[in-house]
Amino acid sequence: MASLDKPPVTTSTVKWRFPAVHPEGYKYVAIATGITLLLTMVSHVLFWPMVGVVIWVATFFRDPVRTTPQGEGLIVAPADGLITMIQRVPIPRELAGENGLGDVPLVRVSIFMSVFDVHINRTPIAGTIRQVVYISGKFLNADLDKASEENERQHFVVEDRNGMRIGFTQIAGLVARRILGFVKAGDMVAVGQRIGLIRFGSRVDVYLPDHVVPQVCLGQRSIAGETVLGRVGGVPVGGIAQ
After folding, report:
1. Is 56 helix (H, G, I), strand (E, B) or coil?
2. CB of 36 within 8 A of CB of 194?
3. Quick one: pLDDT band at residue 82, thresholds 50, 70, 90?
4. CB–CB of 211/232 below 8 Å?
5. DSSP summary character for residue 31
6. Active site residue ranges
7. What does pTM read for this prediction?
8. How far apart are CA 206 and CA 169, in angstroms?
9. Are 230 and 211 in contact (CB under 8 A)?
10. How many Cα atoms are found within 13 Å in the side-chain-facing hemisphere of 150?
């Protein structure tokens, strides 16, 4: 048995490294690299600007390691980005009903992802994926409220072991042209597990049950899989538009 008097094990060899590129981004990095080589043959002046493009593409698809907080009643952010809306709204019809989130308006927390944010999305709670619904649509500015009803989007409902259901939606934006999902209905997921991504710039909405209190404020930046977005029975930290 280890002595309680011993100091904790530490290391001085940890160094920063560029996050791994998600496999979905490999072909785009390869395409950008190929274009860079071709344009360089035409004009060397284009080399460094195109190297910048390649770096940006690799950065867009970066997939950093995240440390997800553990504890009962925590709902973590599914996306990196800016908290742009916290308001009570009617439930989207695709998520409503007894097999979804019910029919009573819920608090929606919207996270806007710019083209510079990490675009890997993660599940807010552990449990079973009950629904995955893809809806084709427009490509309006994802920061607009009506984007949640008119844009291309993909809805998820995940239910934890206590029966609590959290709904969240990937929404395409002006630049985004593809929503990808990594899970399907019936899959078991761990909190903070990767469930999909959106290319390139978009939004994620999270619908919180009434007994879950938002733990973020408008204008705050969230980190997918790390920021505590809501807490069962928590204390409010910001205002909610009614």
Report:
1. helix
2. no
3. very high
4. yes
5. H
6. 202
7. 0.81
8. 7
9. no
10. 12
